[in-house]
Write a structure and sequence with these properties.
Elements lengths: L1 H19 L16 E9 L1 E10 L4 E10 L4 E8 L3 E6 L4 E6 L1 H11 L2 H21 L3 E9 L2 E8 L2 E6 L5 E8 L2 E11 L17 E2 L3 H17 L1 H6 L7 E2 L8 E2 L3 H12 L5
Parallel strand pairs: 6-12
Antiparallel strand pairs: 1-2, 1-11, 2-3, 3-4, 4-5, 5-6, 7-8, 8-9, 9-10, 10-11, 13-14
């Protein structure tokens, strides 16, 4: 339960600034400040270890290597590789792998189907949603709040979590989460913009990723529902079978998050083009 709560908050924190900046840009087409990069992280607190994020072609391909040990001595060792079409997750401890469609692909497809006028509505509503999410959770969004390792970072503070992410990208460089007895800090210690070795994107030997048969249907459904809701928030709430990201709140208090943890994690994949966990 604690892990689910932390994941949910982490997703919300990373989602907010992307939506808040969506007024003039498509939030599903972010622009990284580098073509290639390797980011090293140190993890401390309830979990101690390291993480490395490899980025190629302005984020079209990314690979995350996560190695850590929690307070009871349980070890985790995972690799996540994402392309524009697929997300591959490998558990090196249990020797398992999964393959699922990248929701980002379907979000772009649905967005590009819209008329120019509807695209403008989506951008406007996405921006309003980002600000409403922050307000409804007593949170705060600060653009270009701090430089970390020479890069401008946006700051989001909400529900015991503070995250600094690369400006307009949702890629965190520093995070501090403390909730329900779980305290985890992650901070980038080094960023290199040198070309990334192709070996970083190779699948681990002996593990064949299994495709989730429900993955494509879920990704398509999420994209359609999200775009319909962003195009017409009130209409999305009334639509039969709709599962909007937000439910209406008191007009003076903004909106309240109303998304299952599974959907939240899918949205993180959509916006970051990867899933770290």
């Amino acid at each position: 339960m604690r892990r689910v709560q932390c994941i949910t908050i982490a997703v919300l924190v990373l989602l907010m600034p992307l939506l808040a900046m969506a007024g003039s840009n498509n939030p599903w087409e972010r622009k990284l400040p580098f073509k290639n990069a390797t980011i090293q992280y140190a993890i401390s607190g309830s979990e101690n270890g390291t993480e490395t994020l490899y980025i190629r072609d302005y984020g079209k391909e990314m690979a995350t290597y996560h190695t850590a040990t929690n307070v009871v001595g349980q070890k985790t060792k995972k690799i996540t590789i994402s392309t524009l079409d697929w997300i591959y997750s490998f558990d090196l401890v249990n020797k398992t792998g999964q393959k699922s469609p990248n929701p980002h692909k379907y979000m772009l497809e649905e967005y590009n189907k819209l008329s120019k006028a509807d695209q403008q509505k989506v951008m406007k509503n996405a921006k309003n949603m980002g600000m409403s999410m922050a307000k409804g959770l007593n949170g705060k969004i600060e653009m270009n709040a701090k430089k970390i390792l020479g890069y401008d970072c946006d700051k989001v503070t909400v529900m015991g979590t503070t995250v600094y992410s690369l400006h307009k990208t949702g890629i965190p460089l520093k995070s501090d989460t403390s909730i329900m007895g779980v305290s985890i800090k992650k901070e980038a210690t080094e960023i290199s913009e040198k070309p990334v070795d192709a070996k970083a994107f190779q699948f681990p030997a002996g593990i064949v990723p299994e495709q989730d048969p429900r993955g494509e249907a879920m990704a398509r459904s999420l994209a359609k529902q999200t775009m319909a809701m962003l195009k017409d928030p009130e209409g999305g709430h009334r639509a039969p079978g709709a599962n909007p990201m937000m439910r209406p709140g008191t007009r003076g208090n903004g909106a309240t998050p109303n998304m299952s943890n599974e959907k939240l994690e899918q949205v993180m994949k959509m916006l970051k083009q990867r899933e770290n966990k």
